[in-house]
Design a protein that fits this description.
Blueprint: H1 5-24, E1 44-51, E2 61-67, E3 73-78, H2 83-94, H3 102-114
Antiparallel strand pairs: 1-2, 2-3
Length: 115
């Protein structure tokens, strides 16, 4: 059973559309998540995540979760060259990348703000 020219053309358009969607997807493993980065953020941090270098993304990425007064949260990408991000990354290394100890880094940041 051979496909007609119209069927082939339709098939190629479909494959092209799927490829474009996959290329533009933000959650494709191996691609950098942070496109816009902020150097300094002041506020109430509730969590952070360090994404190590990986295939498709040659930089370390740091996302912080901020708690707003209305109890909503927002994730923000930080520029790892900034002073605050470097402090988070040093703390992350100091706790040996133990996710259960992340609050130590957040508490350290809060203490430094009150001084």
């Amino acid at each position: 059973m051979a496909l007609s020219e119209k069927s082939w053309a339709l098939f190629l358009v479909f494959v092209a559309a799927v490829c474009i969607e996959l290329y533009e997807a933000h959650d494709v493993p191996g691609r950098c998540m942070c496109h816009r980065k902020i150097k300094f953020i002041k506020g109430n941090f509730s969590d952070f995540q360090v994404l190590e270098r990986r295939p498709g993304c040659d930089s370390i990425e740091l996302t912080v979760t901020m708690s707003n007064p209305d109890n909503s949260t927002v994730k923000i990408c930080m520029d790892t060259e900034g002073k605050l991000a470097k402090a988070f990354l040093r703390c992350w290394e100091r706790i040996n990348k133990d996710k259960s100890r992340k609050m130590e880094c957040i508490d350290r940041k809060r203490k430094s703000e009150t001084k």
